[in-house]
Design a protein that fits this description.
Rossmann fold; about 240 residues; alpha/beta; binds hypoxanthine; 7 helices; five-stranded mixed barrel; globular
Length: about 240
């Protein structure tokens, strides 16, 4: 039994959704899973649930914020037999033309967090999603009427970033959005031969390090619900 997931391999489905927020994990189970799902972890309040979605096994496990926290849970989920791990989260929009509640399917995640390079022992690595999951998510998102953007994102180690101009430089190099957990997921997926994907809802539009416009609660719910629907469909596909 791992240290942070107080569970046995049989407690998790092969496909696991991984939001950061424990309450979002509960919301996903309550809203999307078939009735009868069960709590499989509450160590440190990191809620995890297992049940079915449209009759097929699925789990959701919250992983906290940042690659260091999320990496603990990704590692332990892999130890427990996870085969397909899909991050659902929010991200700050960097690219021109993005709108609040848009869906970003991250084809790759630049690792702006030193713990990812520690995982590869300093060797350069390109954290990349599993193409089959990217394709499924993009197609499903468009069917659901989402505004879907596909491209690279940044996984930053710092929410409050003192580096002047960094957001603009990331945008200039083609990144769509910034979040904090995908690069670790994609790197561990490559190391352990597990399928991985990150789907994000745009929750802020970032002008620079000091200025961001925040989404309304109503738009957040619309965007997050649509992202979760996409992620559940991809999880069981
Ligand atoms: N930065 C990092 N992660 C985020 C942001 C952000 O601005 N918004 C949502 N997740």
């Amino acid at each position: 039994m791992p240290i942070h997931l107080r569970a046995d391999p049989s407690d998790y489905a092969p496909a696991v959704l991984v939001p950061g927020d424990p309450r979002r994990a509960k919301y996903i189970a309550d809203t999307f899973f078939d009735p009868g799902f069960r709590l499989v972890n509450d160590e440190r309040g990191a809620l995890g649930f297992t049940g079915t979605f449209q009759g097929k096994p699925i789990s959701v496990q919250s992983v906290g914020m940042g690659c260091a926290s999320a990496g603990i849970y990704y590692n332990e989920l892999i130890q427990l037999g996870a085969q397909r791990i899909i991050r659902v989260g929010t991200a700050g929009g960097l690219a021109p033309g993005l709108q609040m509640a848009d869906t970003v399917v991250a084809i790759s995640a630049t690792a702006d967090d030193p713990v990812v390079a520690q995982m590869t022992q300093g060797e350069a690595h390109s954290p990349t999603a599993s193409w089959n999951l990217v394709e499924l998510a993009v197609n499903r998102g468009r069917e659901l009427g989402a505004r879907v953007h596909v491209g690279p994102i940044v996984s930053s180690g710092l929410f409050y970033d003192p580096r002047q101009g960094i957001m603009q430089r990331w945008a200039d190099r083609g990144h769509l959005a910034v979040e904090m957990e995908a690069a670790m997921l994609y790197t561990l997926g490559a190391i352990h031969k597990v399928e991985t994907l990150c789907v994000c809802t745009i929750s802020d539009l970032i002008t620079d390090e000091n200025n961001a416009e925040r989404i309304s609660d109503d738009d957040m719910k619309i965007g997050v619900d649509r992202m979760m629907q996409i992620a559940c469909d991809v999880a069981i596909a």
